[in-house]
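fyi for ur records
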Amino acid sequence: MMRARTGDLLIATALPVLLVGVGVCWVLARPDGPGAVALPASIALGASTVLLGLGALPSLGAQPSTRIIGVLAALWLSASVVAGWLRTADQSGVAAVDVDIDQFGTAMSSGAAELVSAAAALLILAWVSVDLLTAVVIGVRAVAVVAAVGVLATAVGGHASLHVWGPVLVGAHALAAAWWCGTLAAMVLTLRGRSGWAATLPEFSRFAVWAVGVIAATGVIVGVVEVGGITELATTGYGRILLAKLAGLSALAGLGWWHRRTWVPAASRHRMSEAVSVRHGVAEVMLMAVVLGLAAGLSATAP
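which gave:
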């Protein structure tokens, strides 16, 4: 029980770190940086990302906690509703406290990404209720599928493209990043003992190489297309945020490469304690949280 609480507390610190990424966006893009909606949007993105990772854990031979899934789904639902409310205020040109239910309902029903996210979170909460209160068995992979739908809706809605292939690239980028970040966070929350890390970490590392490749290739193409040119990377707020995100992803890739050479071999041979593996995982998750915050701020900033 103490180990579970420690893992929960360590991962929970990723939430304020997400907001650090959004804060960097405001500094880089002022005065035209992301609006207030980026704050709850970043929390929603973080929660949906970890939910996708938790749902994907059985593919790596691990089983997540239904309790943690429920907590994160409730957080995702709350953040999505707040984000939708703030977006409604922005579109209506009124203060958030002056938005009424009719305005909110109209904005959400018009196809807002927050509506899809809220519906996905509700579906996962329904899964949690069924899993905890009934004998009906629905595989936890359903959580990954539903979370993936929410991640896709948010990513495509936040990166409008004039090209028909734009949503495909954006979707691939978002799903690869969500799997990479979310699965590692889910492992920190779930895995127990040396044997747990020895069995799961090598499999994660094997798939992570492909995920990083997809993230790099799609991110560069989409970023350059949306910015409009190389010079705009330094002369626009959107471009500067994109450069910061690329720098963060490069740092993550470097850390991942180092962990692949040191952490993964030691853990797979049972030569690294659970506590050390958790520390390595948390360090990487914290850097991932900053990059996710940058991604949320980028999607709320006009190119």
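The mean pLDDT is 87. thats all i got for now
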